[in-house]
Amino acid sequence: MQMRRIWGRGLATLFTLSTLPLAAQATDFVVDEVGDPGTAGNGTCSLREALSAANSDTAVADCGTGSADGDTISFDGTVFALASSIALDNASGTLVISDDVSIDGTLSGAATRLTLDGGDAIRVTQIDAASGAGTSQAVNLSNLILTNGQDVDGGGMHIAAGSSVSLTAVDVTSSSATGTAASNGGGGIYNAGTLSISGGELSGNTATAGSGSGGAIFNTGTLSADGTTINGNSSARAGGGIETRDGAAVTLANVTMDGNDAGTNPGNGGACTSPMPIRTTIPPP
Q1: pLDDT tens-digit profile of 100-131?
Q2: What is the pLDDT of residue 209?
Q3: Residue 58 in contact with residue 98, Cβ under 8 Å?
């Protein structure tokens, strides 16, 4: 009788443990298709398909199923050894990120970073992850070049309010904001969230239509940059490099700004303009 009671308790314990929910596992997507948007059923995973799976936490095409937290995207070293650039499909539009994800564009071929090219027709990426699933909504991008983007605001990147974005060794180049109002701009980046930049370069970006401002960055949120180069950007109204608005915050450390132009309408702040104090750290010579 005693042995049967012990056995019964053991079964109950095993049953209880077996019915406990398993913790969700992050998905590590490896992009092995250069084309955009990708072709479902061909056995490969494109960047747009991987992002769709990470955003929706469902299975998309041949990429597998995304998870609520911790998804990562990297790029197959063999496939991208020769093809180091993804030309975005204009009809498919901007690459949208609506949940937390980490994307690392490190390559092992002649080019060491992946280029995402908007073809002077569409914004390269749009980030609105504040309402993403799970406990984390942080977006981390590293070792990428975003180029030839175009939109009313944020030709290279648009960050919505509430989103938290970290850029590490990311260049944003030759992109434009075409909006004509003083509230339009950010040829490279329009930031309404929290943006942290480490290294990288913003160059050759423009917001020169009408009263466009912030050639490289138009900031209405919180911006910090460390070790970043902001060169050769231009705007029509203000902030050839950076335009920041009332209530926004900017912290710059070891940032190089050169050759930025604010035009003549009215032409405030070739490098940077802000109605709020800007915290700066400059290394000793």
Answers
A1: 999 999 998 888 999 999 999 999 999 999 98
A2: 94
A3: no
Report d(CA 238, CA 271) in Å as an integer.
9
Sign of the alpha-carbon dihedral angle for 193, 94, 172, 186: negative
pTM here is 0.87
The answer to whether residues 252 and 219 touch, using CB atoms and an 8 Å cutoff, is no
How many Å apart are CA 230 and CA 189, to the nearest integer? 12
Q: What is the rounded CA–CA span in Å between residue 1 and residue 3?
A: 5
What gap in Å lies between CA 103 and CA 168, rounded to an integer? 10
Residues with Cβ < 8 Å from 35, sequence gap 6 or more? 46
* pLDDT tens string 74-85: 999 999 988 899
Q: Which of 167, 30, 175, 153 has the alpha carbon at shortest distance from 88?
A: 175
Compute the chain's Rg from CA coordinates.
22
Question: Do residues 134 and 68 make contact, with C-beta atoms less than 8 angstroms apart?
Answer: yes
